[in-house]
Amino acid sequence: MAVSWFCAVILFYYVFGEEVLIEYYPSQSHIDAGSKVQRKREIKTNDLPNDVYTNDTSQQIKWRHFNQEENDDDGEIHKRALDPVFHGHPKTREELWNMHFLNETAVFDQTPSLVNLLHNISLTYLKDCVPVILYDSQVKSKESYLVQKVLKDFPMSVIHGYINESNELVQPKLLHASTDCQHYILFLSDIKVSAKILGKQPENKIIIVARSSQWALKEFLASVNSRMFVNLLVIGQSFKEGDDETLESPYILYTHKLYTDGLGASQPVVLNSWTHGKFSRNVDLFPLKMTEGYAGHRFVVAAANQPPFVFRRIKSDLDGGNPRVVWEGVEIRILKLLAERNNFSIEIIEPRELNLGPGDSVAKEVMLGRADIGIAGMYLTSDRVRDMDVSMAHSHDCAIFITLMSTALPRYRAILGPFHWHVWLALTFTYLFGMFPLAFSDKHTLRHLLHNS
Question: Which residues are the signal sequence here (predicted)?
Fold first, then answer.
């Protein structure tokens, strides 16, 4: 049956002389060789083509060429064909003018909302200290108008500084001001560099306006670097896929919960949100931290022998074996009471450079980060207060200077003092030889007496 249909098709083309059209795709090398084949499509023609491959002279096969250049250049200029149907969302003439000339787009400007948020937080929480505003190079180059608007109408006195491309503060003295109370507002493109810039800030309030994603913010709040800030507030903008750009996006306010387990991990917490000029709820943006203790976290304590505050003793078993160091003293007892009250444990180590003295050697361990706490009966000095966090004084020490007791002077010594007797004798002879000639002279000078011939 299939053979009969095939024979019928061959007979139909033989009778009517139809042309068989075969599609031919030349290779790129054939095109580059300069082969110019005129592309035409002719149906039912009597002209015999140049390239014909057929087994029957009555059957004509026409090759159809693709990827060939048109060679029908008649020298005339032809208009380009246009699609009468526009595909897309065209902008009006007014929108094009706003975009190109007035630099205005339909996207909602979030800057006024952020400026109002910072002003509101500053008036509520930063009135007790002078705020310091710091911004990095990317914010300065791309969002300089934001910093200008924040500084223009700031409700109180403010100090501002610049962070260079190496993530270092150009004015490092801003971190070591004469006043202990100093809050910071940071505009950063990368929130992770904040710990490197400010260092440890256990009391000052830190506000970070981060241009990072919400995932990056939560990763920083859960990291070890966020533990360097206790009073921390991070402001991030809410970005959701599919949101209308013509509407205001809320700002999300984050903080962290410190020491959630024994390893010292932190947990990000969403405090509030700001949109349309108000907060979503009434909460404290700087809540108290570590109210439930430190979850059994272990702190390293550097201690040096300084009786009666710290005693270092070596004890052993009854047979004299198993020698071990035992620490006692007033500060050891105070530290154990604090550990029991705040749910943490301690590990006592000795400083590496004991030749510096008990206080200085322990202080160096803390400043280099090898210890969290230092105890050695240390005195409170201005340098230590500047470089470290010190506790309240638990003892007061009084020092005096002693000298030999002074005896009562004789009366003549009290009159002739403070000069010696030969000084007074020289002054007396000088007065006698000088004042008598002057007294008998009307000219009150010795010149005429010396030259009187």
Answer: 1-17
Is residue 121 exposed (0-12), middle (13-18) or buried (19+ Cβ within 10 Å)? Answer: buried
Residue 226 · residue 203 · CB < 8 Å: no
pTM here is 0.61
Q: Element (H or E) spanning 99, and its range?
A: helix 93-100
Measured distance CA(299)–CA(371) in Å, rounded: 8
What long-range pairs does 248-254 form, CB within 8 A, spacing at least 24?
248/108, 248/110, 248/113, 248/275, 248/276, 249/108, 249/110, 249/275, 250/274, 250/275, 250/280, 251/113, 251/114, 251/117, 251/275, 252/214, 253/285, 254/217, 254/218, 254/221
Q: What is the pLDDT along the chain (453 residues), one digit of tens a residue?
A: 544 555 554 554 554 554 444 444 555 555 555 544 444 444 444 444 444 444 454 455 555 554 445 455 555 655 555 555 555 667 777 767 666 655 555 566 788 889 999 999 999 999 888 899 999 888 888 777 888 888 888 888 888 888 988 888 888 888 765 566 789 999 998 898 998 898 888 889 999 998 888 888 999 999 988 988 999 999 998 866 556 666 778 899 999 999 988 888 899 999 999 998 899 999 999 999 988 889 889 999 999 999 889 999 998 888 878 888 999 999 999 999 999 999 999 999 999 998 999 999 999 999 898 999 999 999 888 888 878 888 888 888 887 888 887 777 677 666 666 677 788 888 888 887 777 666 666 665 656 656 665
Closest CA to 105 of 94, 113, 116: 94
Torsion of CA 135, 138, 143, 149, to 10 degrees: 10
β-partners of residue 188 are 210
* Rounded Cα gap, residues 212 and 223, in angstroms: 15
Cβ burial, residue 303 (10 Å; 0-12/13-18/19+):
buried
Domains within the chain, CATH numbers bracketed: 2-65 (no CATH), 111-279 (3.40.50), 297-387 (3.40.190.10), 411-450 (no CATH)
Q: Alpha helix (H) ranges present in 311-404? A: 330-342, 358-367, 382-387
CA 149 vs CA 64, 114, 278: distances in Å = 68, 10, 19
> Is residue 30 within 8 Å of 67, Cβ to Cβ?
no
Residue 404 three-state SS: coil
